[in-house]
Design the sequence.
């Protein structure tokens, strides 16, 4: 069952509606473009693990409009630049998923790659930073701090354009 931009039983759509209503915390509403929302991953041990979320429900990358795809390309670059400034990472990894039972919605992870990460967190093993125990997760204050800094960087980039 679909509404204009939401698919029921899609937690990602519910979270997008929360942002639309102004009810999301800063970490879950860092920056918004016409087609994408930038949020901090809520279940990670790595500060700065950001997620770009399609603002309308799309279940696969090939369902994106040309405008959504074009904006995503620019946003990936800009978010990577912002993360380099904010976290000191040397680059980012980019991963896309859309098949979790609660999140069947295109979202793109932008992960800061730190020089001091351990050997067991290199390449695809970076996923060891997600689905961690509650006490290992980045806390809300830290997510908000990163979010505020990323917001400032992205806003400055947008204002220069």
Sequence:
């Amino acid at each position: 069952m679909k509404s204009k931009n939401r698919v029921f039983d899609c937690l990602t759509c519910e979270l997008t509606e929360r942002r639309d209503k102004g009810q999301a915390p800063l970490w879950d509403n860092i920056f918004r473009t016409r087609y994408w929302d930038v949020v901090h991953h809520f279940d990670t041990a790595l500060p700065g693990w950001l997620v770009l979320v399609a603002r309308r429900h799309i279940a696969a990358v090939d369902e994106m409009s040309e405008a959504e795809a074009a904006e995503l390309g620019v946003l990936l670059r800009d978010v990577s630049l912002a993360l380099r400034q904010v976290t000191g990472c040397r680059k980012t990894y980019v991963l896309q998923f859309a098949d979790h039972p609660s999140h069947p919605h295109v979202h793109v992870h932008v992960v800061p790659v730190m020089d001091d990460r351990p050997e067991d967190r290199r390449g695809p093993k970076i996923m060891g930073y997600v689905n961690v125990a509650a006490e290992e997760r980045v806390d809300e204050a830290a997510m908000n701090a990163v979010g505020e800094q990323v917001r400032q960087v992205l806003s400055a980039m947008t204002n220069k354009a």
